Predict the structure of Late embryogenesis abundant protein LEA-2 subgroup domain-containing protein.
Amino acid sequence: MEVESLKQEENKTMMMMAQHDRNPNKKRRRKIICLVVISVILALALIFTILGLTVFKAKRPVITVNSAVLSDLHFSFDMARLRVFLNVTVDTSVAVKNPNRVGFEYINSTALLKYRGDVVGEVPVPAGKIGARDSKIMNVTLTLMLDRVLSNSNLYSDIMSGTLPLQTYARIAGKVRMLFNIHVVSYFSCDLEVSISSRNITKLQCHYKTKL
């Protein structure tokens, strides 16, 4: 009996020693696994950061006014009633280029026709999307609203001089989705002079502005 009890105690001692030997191995494995997981996470974060700052960095859409053409101009003056009739329509072709590797989505906007700072015509620009590294042509037709321009005291002197100063303006706002949404706003404005006698645009100067 004593021999058997001694053997049992020896077996228990050996099992405890074996378990003690295995525990450090388990701890080592866990540490190694944790280090590998952390290293992978840090590597992926570094890769995404580099891509975000280089390949997938958000770029500003480029707006270019290709042309502004006077499609209609009609002017008459009623001497008896001292009334002016003036109809001006400007067709503007605008190119919007998306240099990003992902699509650019823009919301509803409005193109404006201005006369000496006053809005005298407007037309909606519907929302849309421009594909990655693609361009889109927007044809905008702006017509002067006579009732809005008659109240301006400079109208008669401009008509007498034979030149009507106008300005076209539009703001296009949208977003580029990289790792997250990046909002972009682009503007363009064109100063133009309309010759009443020759019925054409004699001067066109455009300005562009974009911000992230």
In short: The CA atoms of residues 118 and 152 lie 8 Å apart. The chain has two domains: 1-55, 62-211. The chain has a mean pLDDT of 83. The domain at 62-211 is CATH 2.60.40.10 (Immunoglobulin-like).
